[in-house]
Amino acid sequence: MNERDVEQLVRDQVVKQRSAVEVPGDYSARVLRSIKSASDPSRGLRRGRDLMSAAAILALVAVLAGGIAWIRTHSRPVPGPVVTPAPTAAGQPGALTYPGQPIRFVTAQVGWRVVLQHVYRTPDGGRSWQTVLTIQTGALAASASWFFDDRRAVVVSAGSSGYRLYRTIDAGAIWQEAALPSDTFPVTVSSQASFISPTDGWILSGDGPDPSSLANVRLYRTTDGGVHWSEVNHSTKQTTSGSIPLTGVLDHLAFRDASSGWITARESSGPAVYATTDGGRTWHGQKLPPAPGYDLKGAYPLAPLFPSGSLEGLLPVQVWLPLPPGSPGRSTNSRVVLYRSADGGRTWSSTVVLPATSPTDSGVSGGFLGSYWWLAAWREIWVSRDAGKTWSHLQPHLVQDERIANVDFADSMHAYGQLIAGPATPALEHISDIESTDGGLTWHPVQLPG
Amino acid sequence: MEPLIQAVAGPALQLATLLSEDRMVAEDIVQEALLRAWQSPRTPRDIVSFRRWVYRIVVNLARDRHRRAVVWDRLRMLTRPAPDPGALVEDRATGAVLREALRRLSRREREAVYLRFFEDAHYQEVAEILGSSEGTCRVLIHRALKKVAARLSAEGLAPEGLQT
């Protein structure tokens, strides 16, 4: 008997033991109900208060213990002129479609926030918040949201009856409800849907055992806020001219306007970008130039991002650095390779590698305020005042083990985000809301709704 | 995230049960793991990464429970009833020896073995879930298989030529 035989015996045994664990038919539903109950907003508020108390103690300790470090701080950049978003601008000021962004300021004063099944809005820079939408019918939480300006928004929720779409054009006073295409599963709505206005949107729908082996992908489009959806592309494994190749994992869908859009994917050869110029009917591959010194194999492409009405946009790609041979553990050390486009996304060039100085295996958040662009990941923030041509690096004052996520700037000095504290495992970390009034250098706890 | 949870909850319960050897504990672990995944802004939204993410939380929570339960477990083992000799003979044919051999592996070896064979995962995937390197996982699994082989041999269940 050799090791291969033993391996087969062990494999059979593990499969047998697994099969012996009965999973009742209603188990998933029961777990979902428990999660829903545990995520009850009133309980969340109590948890939030606990976290706030802990954060306050931490902050006090940090202030006392960090006094010397504060005095020694020598690299504080001189802030530039305050940039504020154009008030009530049409289009998408600074909107990102990355998942998990819990707060979004569309003007210096007006912000939106999504927490589970509640949508809140502030008209006064975060001093007060009103609940403008509570999704009722069996919904667990908002899965994705798009905030276009101070009045117009789209929210998609997942619930027991499928995905529902809610849109408003009057600051949340009235919400119109609609359904998503019935076979919209197993799409990841947060990253595989895109809206450029409350009425114009697209959603990818795939079927197959998992996103890496889809047999069919359909792209649906609506021009009436989800009342009607039409199939604009149907792609299968049989690649034909204009189809969406199903050779990798489709990650993100993003549209810049009614015609131009992109799908990013992870393929065995590296990140892939497919573009359309006819509203999604036909797709073609785009070339990404190599990033000197970095292996793009296994890299994770995010969605292309364009400020409303701008031809200048960026495409972040997260790459992980290889460990030296023989090193224990896995690489958590990543860099963000930024591709920039100046022609509306027809070509990508001018690779910039953001000089991360610490591990960055958390998500990337970012956005735009006119030509003021930012990206944040782990313990780092990068800002650009020239629409992504040059970037400067901020190192926020954080204590050990603290990371920041979901950073959103109301203006170039005033930002909100989330502080993640504790060991870098989801089971042990604590999350609290934070605010910065000095451009992202220092952060303090803030009480936000939800 | 509801479809993702629906897809992963069952397998996560099975994995948690194998790791914790306690159905009630496993249900607690899965509920907590999915709640944490639900609440974390870093939780991936595609099914492959989501499953890996949840399994990683399950493994961490099972480890945590194991650490807390280890004293109790030692006490409980002292009072475990002696096995029925007749049943032992019968169990030999039904894989009891294999089951016991897996139980006697170190915690890390068991985690690696279960993750590897639970869904025929690649070493790289096991490494990502365990937060370890691929090389370390290969060593853990190789060592575990040798221990299992030795156990089979000791029980007279392996023919001549057993390589341990």
Could you please describe the fold and organization of this structure?
- The complex is a heterodimer of chains A (450) and B (164).
- In chain A, strand 26 and strand 27 form a beta hairpin.
- About 14% of the residues of chain A have low confidence.
- Chain A has 450 residues and is an alpha+beta fold.
- Helices cover 14% and strands 36% of the residues of chain A.
- In chain A, the strands form seven sheets. In chain A, strands 1-2-3-4 form a four-stranded antiparallel β-sheet, with no helix packed on it. Chain A has a four-stranded antiparallel β-sheet with strand order 5-6-7-8. In chain A, strands 9-10-11-12 form a four-stranded antiparallel β-sheet.
- The relative contact order of chain A is 0.11.
- Chain A is built from five helices and 28 strands.
- Chain B has 164 residues and is mainly alpha-helical.
- The longest helix of chain B has 32 residues.
- The N and C termini of chain B lie far apart (46 Å).
- The relative contact order of chain B is 0.10.
- Chains A and B meet through helix 1, helix 2 and strand 5 of A and helix 1, helix 2, helix 3, helix 5 and helix 6 of B.
Short summary of the structure?
Chain A is an alpha+beta fold and 450 residues long.
* Order of adjacent strands in the largest pleated sheet of chain A: 1-2-3-4
Number of strands of chain B: 0
Largest interface: A-B, 61 and 68 residues
Q: State the helical fraction of chain B.
A: over 70%
The end-to-end distance of chain B, rounded to whole angstroms, is 46 Å
Strand content of chain A: 35-45%
Main sheet summary of chain B: none
Index terms:
heterodimer, A: 450 residues, alpha+beta, 4-stranded antiparallel sheet, 5 helices, 28 strands, 36% strand, B: 164 residues, mainly alpha, 8 helices, 0% strand, disordered C terminus
SSE layout and pairings?
The complex is a heterodimer of chains A (450) and B (164).
Chain A: H1 3-20, H2 27-38, H3 41-65, H4 67-72, E1 103-105, E2 111-115, E3 118-122, E4 130-134, E5 139-147, E6 153-159, E7 162-168, E8 176-179, H5 189-192, E9 193-195, E10 201-207, E11 216-222, E12 230-236, E13 249-255, E14 261-267, E15 270-276, E16 284-286, E17 300-301, E18 313-320, E19 334-341, E20 349-354, E21 364-369, E22 372-377, E23 380-384, E24 392-394, E25 403-409, E26 415-421, E27 430-436, E28 444-445
Antiparallel strand pairs in A: 1-2, 2-3, 3-4, 5-6, 6-7, 7-8, 9-10, 10-11, 11-12, 13-14, 14-15, 15-16, 17-18, 18-19, 19-20, 21-22, 22-23, 23-24, 25-26, 26-27, 27-28
Chain B: H1 2-20, H2 23-39, H3 47-78, H4 85-94, H5 96-103, H6 107-118, H7 123-130, H8 134-154
Helix pairs in contact in B: 1-2, 1-3, 2-3, 3-7, 5-8, 6-7, 6-8, 7-8
